[in-house]
Design brief:
Length: 240
């Protein structure tokens, strides 16, 4: 089948890679093109194989998944990263989102959810609920180096500053796009935003695309991260 989603598996446990490879390999729309046992090897494989999606363990020898994610996002912007973690609301997974990952999955994820996540990320969406991202931010944002209002903390692949840069970027949004941005930052789905703003889901989808493009963000999860990193939303706030 042509135009299959190319996936790279990165984990220091060979049995874990084998299990993921079996699940993904059974889907006709997905092709596992390579494997790596640490972050440094992953960088070499991404350069050689140009995968669309990388499944990346967060804890590995030589180079961990967080640093590898940061380097992949910077050097290969067309490649999306999904982090693999052993438990929900992992501080390492949150650091990975700030480094540019498009989501995270638990290692005991079910086959259907794994396939759905790979497809979603390959299609430009995220593999973690924005609401989960908000919970992670509230738990970890104030405890991590560089976090907080105006910090240059990697909420976006190229890092985000505060002040004038943020003002200029937000000024590029139309009034309706800013309304959609505010709701995205709160973790609302397209359907929820449509109901709240009294517009169609198709209209919301168009505005979401414009917001991501104008702000240079990879997906809706990074809208949430951006809002916190720039001080537009603080942990515990119910609205912007």
């Amino acid at each position: 089948m042509e135009n299959r989603i190319r996936v790279l598996l990165v984990d220091d446990q060979s049995l874990m890679r084998m299990g993921f490879a079996m699940v993904l390999g059974s889907d006709p729309e997905i092709e596992v093109v390579g494997e790596a046992a640490n972050g440094r090897a992953a960088l070499d494989q991404v350069a050689a194989l140009a995968p669309e999606v990388v499944l990346m363990d967060v804890r590995m020898p030589v180079m961990d998944g967080i640093e590898a994610t940061r380097r992949v996002v910077e050097a290969f912007p067309a490649t999306r990263v999904i982090l693999l973690t052993t438990f929900d609301l992992d501080e390492y997974a949150f650091s990975g989102l700030r480094a540019g990952a498009s989501g995270f999955l638990l290692k005991d994820v079910g086959p259907d959810e794994l396939v759905a996540a790979v497809r979603a990320v390959a299609g430009g969406d995220a593999a973690v609920s924005p609401r989960v991202t908000r919970r992670m931010l509230e738990l970890f944002a104030t405890r991590l180096p560089g976090a907080g209002a105006g910090g240059d903390a990697g909420g976006r692949p190229d890092g985000i500053g505060g002040g004038d840069v943020t003002d200029q970027e937000m000024a590029a949004l139309s009034a309706k796009e800013r309304e959609v941005f505010d709701q995205l930052a709160l973790g609302l789905t397209n359907a929820e935003i449509a109901a709240k703003l009294f517009v169609s889901e198709a209209t919301v989808k168009t505005h979401v695309g414009a917001v991501l493009r104008k702000l240079g963000l990879r997906d809706r999860v990074h809208v949430v991260v951006y809002a916190y990193e720039t001080g537009l939303l603080s942990p515990g706030e119910g609205n912007l």
